[in-house]
Amino acid sequence: MPDITLSIDERTSAVIHRLADFLSQRSIQTYLVGGYVRDALLGKGTQDVDIAVLGDATAVAKEIAAELDGKFVLLDNDNKVARVVLPEFDLDFSTIENGIDDDLARRDFTINTMAVNLNWIAEKLTVIDPQNGYNDLLQKTIRATSDDIFKQDPVRLLRAIRHAAELGFDIEEKTKSFIKRDAHLASAVAGERIRDEFCSSIATNQSYTVLRLMDELNLISPLLPELDACKGVDQPKEHNWDVFNHSIETVAALDKLFTNIGTGQNGLAEIPWTDELTNHFRQEISSGHSRMTILKIAALLHDIGKPVTKSIEEDGRMRFLGHSKDGAQMAKSLMTRLRFSGKEIKTAERIIEQHMRPTQLSNNWEMPTHRAIYRYYRDTEDDAFDILLLSLADHLAARGPLLNKEHWNYHIQLIKYVMLKHSQEQNVVKPPKLIDGNDLIEMGIEPGPEMGTILETVREAQAAGEIHSKDEAINLTKRLFN
């Protein structure tokens, strides 16, 4: 393979050269390996640098941490794997047992089996490529290094899909057959490893491709059995798809909405989108997962309560009474199993439980009352905008090619109205307190549930424009108390 210039940004290059000098002075054989080399050849930036050491990688990592003023983290004492955390990126160190060729042969996919000898770092770097990974990189192909890589580590089943989504590559057919064969092994993988691979995949704008690949390769059933149970569950005639396909289409619609909402396509120019909202969805909730990623997961799971709540009325009408509440609890159980954080679970749980709320704010194609707006923002808290965006995606995914433009335009106007109330009428969304618990105590009302009910009723009346002053609030309280 000819010499190739790796695309290394200036900041990373400085650390790599300093690292190479440090190791070469100590005659420690070291290589840049795996994902870092792959991404460098693709001209992609990366936050993680993978380094393989011929020797005890943990001992080397400790020295490097001290040299670079980084933090040493032991990842696996038995296999001698460690990490050095620097302000801008991480250095992951692994131990080579029997030479670099053997180390590369034990890796997962050919595009991850390339290495660069750090002891000979220069402007042009000779890439070690025993598995012909560079050719697969050019062909945009994900190819397993052997037929048992998934048995060695089943999390690779999802990693293949993540690579395909992040890189825009295709999974080679024989590798697909290996995944189908070994898909059942995924259920034994630690929840947090599945969580991180799945979140990384669905965080891309290729969510639809990811979910369809997971279904094609038999990974939905072992990983998301609650979603698998939605297959073949019919819905009323207003829906174009069954519950399973509707759920996947909803995630796809979210991707399209988030991409197109700034361009004004499909009537979306009406949505009062701001940089503040863009940042809202990009913010990290926890564990490195963004709010948009958790919203996509909630969208995928928003109807998983339908199979257990489905009923047919005497008149033939199909009902799913309580599916939002049941689905929220099922999603909570699923996400707990996959070791999501409490905050992430609570966010998804509220979004799912309230996902029908926007369309229930008014009747007869009218805009919601101030009282309804107040209650909506009170009950949905920080997730109000997430639910509004999901409501639009849910509408698109329900109708599909049968979308009624008149209904769609009304839905957009509804979402626009609710969003504008938040930015333009804070006295409706979150009215300032006219009275508090001390005022009620002075009126002879003892602390307790009744006090909370009265204060909330006063705030609702204030939001609705029925009262405007403290005196009016006190008079209303007297009527309520009496």
Short description:
The chain has four domains: 10-139, Beta Polymerase, domain 2; 149-223, Orthogonal Bundle (Hydrophobic Seed Protein), CATH 1.10.110.30; 234-429, no CATH class; 437-481, no CATH class. Helices cover 53% and strands 10% of the residues. It has 25 helices and 13 strands.
Task: Describe the model.
The chain has 482 residues and is α+β, with helices and mostly antiparallel strands. It folds into four domains: 10-139, Beta Polymerase, domain 2; 149-223, Orthogonal Bundle (Hydrophobic Seed Protein), CATH 1.10.110.30; 234-429, no CATH class; 437-481, no CATH class. It is built from 25 helices and 13 strands. The strands form four sheets. The chain has a seven-stranded mixed beta sheet with strand order 3-4-5-2-1-6-7. Strands 8-9 form a two-stranded parallel sheet. Strands 10-11 form a two-stranded antiparallel sheet. A hairpin with a 2-residue loop joins strand 10 and strand 11 (289-290). Helix 13 runs antiparallel to helix 15 (291-301). The protein is globular, with a radius of gyration of 28 Å. 40% of the residues are buried. The model has no long low-confidence stretch (mean pLDDT 89).
| Tally of structural domains | 4
Q: What is the makeup of the main sheet? A: 7 strands, mixed
Overall strand count: 13
Task: Give the radius of gyration.
Answer: 28 Å
**Residue share in helix:** 40-55%
Q: What oligomerization state is this entry in?
A: single chain
Head-to-tail CA distance between termini:
89 Å
Number of helices: 25
**Unreliable runs:** none
Assign the structural class, choosing from mainly alpha, mainly beta, alpha/beta, alpha+beta, or little secondary structure. alpha+beta
Q: What amount of the residues lies in strands?
A: 5-15%
Arithmetic mean pLDDT: 89
Strand order of the largest sheet: 3-4-5-2-1-6-7
Principal-axis shape equals globular
